[in-house]
Design brief:
Length: 330
């Protein structure tokens, strides 16, 4: 009958042209959306979420299945209630493993910011890639940005290959326990043979200790601020890239009618969508360095060590200035 934290496949049927999958109905929304709607959010809440995810991953691995695309967008809640089950969804990239082999998969797939080093190396990968992703998710849930945030997918990949991350700025990590950081380090181990397994992770003190974490700080303000700031910043960056691509490719013909007096509004309303269509963005496939990602998705790019609010405001100011200059040159 499956696992309580896995979206169950109830039935399937096919027509001449389509295959239909019938699954559990999950009405509780995505993980990060749920967190942002909460009035408060503590490290102990993150522990509960990761424990449920690990329980499901351990079940999958025991049955010879590797998910390969674990990320917050693929973690759903069954119902809107506070005590609703967390569900792992989207098994489109999952594979059944041969238990007698450790390395059998060589296809580069997944979401770049959550992919393990061995996937990029194409040296063969297996179940450990799910634990790497859980390490990235845990980091993200505790601060609002991913550990390998960079300005391009190439730089992000280079950071992942050498596990170049840190728990900074200190202002964002002051309220996070050392045990949580140690858990993340065990997940983000470059060598898959040395990386913690799902069952070992369930026994880790950060996960296994049922006593609530004492004197914890409310992490919600920091998490929401970092997430929203980066989403805004990268949407603006994608806008500039969209303008450059449209201008370089004769995109002026696509933009008929009067020009808006508000460059930011015009860009946000039309150019991003046009550029996404031109680039053929695919959420689950790494894109070349010059390509951006959907600004409405959780964007994994940015500064790996976090940015102060002043730095973010300064970047946004420069982007607005560049937007206005580009617009005036048309």
């Amino acid at each position: 009958m499956g696992h309580r934290n896995i979206l169950t496949l109830v039935d399937y049927f096919e027509t001449m042209n389509n295959l239909y999958l019938v699954t559990d109905l999950a009405l509780g929304g995505e993980l990060f959306d749920r967190i942002c709607r909460k009035g408060s959010y503590y490290e102990s809440d993150a522990v509960d979420l990761i424990r449920a995810t690990l329980s499901a991953v351990a079940y999958l691995h025991d049955h010879g299945i590797v998910h390969r695309d674990l990320k917050p967008e693929n973690l759903l809640f069954r119902t809107p209630e506070d005590n609703a089950d967390l569900l792992i969804a989207d098994f489109g990239l999952s594979r059944i493993m041969d238990e007698e082999q450790f390395h059998v998969l060589t296809t580069t797939c997944g979401t770049p910011g959550y992919m393990a080093p061995e996937i990029f190396k194409k040296s063969g990968h297996g179940k450990p890639v799910d634990l790497w992703a859980i390490g990235v998710i845990t980091y993200f849930l505790l601060c609002g940005y991913t550990p390998f945030d960079r300005d391009s997918n190439l730089e992000e990949m280079q950071a992942i290959l050498v596990a170049d991350y840190s728990f900074t700025p200190l202002e964002y990590w002051r309220g996070v326990s050392q045990t949580a950081r140690e858990f993340i380090k065990r997940c983000l181990t470059i060598d898959p043979h040395q990386r913690i397994t799902a069952h070992e992770a369930l026994s880790h003190p950060w996960i296994a200790d049922t006593a609530p974490i004492q004197d914890g700080e409310d992490l919600l303000p920091v998490v929401k601020k970092n997430f929203n700031a980066r989403k805004t910043l990268h949407a603006a960056i994608d806008t500039i890239r969209a303008i450059n691509q449209l201008r370089a490719g004769g995109g002026a013909a696509m933009m008929d009618g009067a020009l808006s007096k508000d460059p930011g509004r015009a860009m946000g309303a039309g150019l991003i969508g046009a550029a996404q269509q031109a680039r053929g963005i695919r959420n689950n496939v790494p894109q070349p360095e010059e390509e951006g990602s959907d600004p409405m998705e959780i964007d994994s790019r940015g500064n790996a060590r976090g940015q102060t609010e002043e730095m973010i405001h300064e970047q946004e100011r420069r982007i607005r200035q560049t937007q206005e200059q580009l617009w005036s040159q048309r």
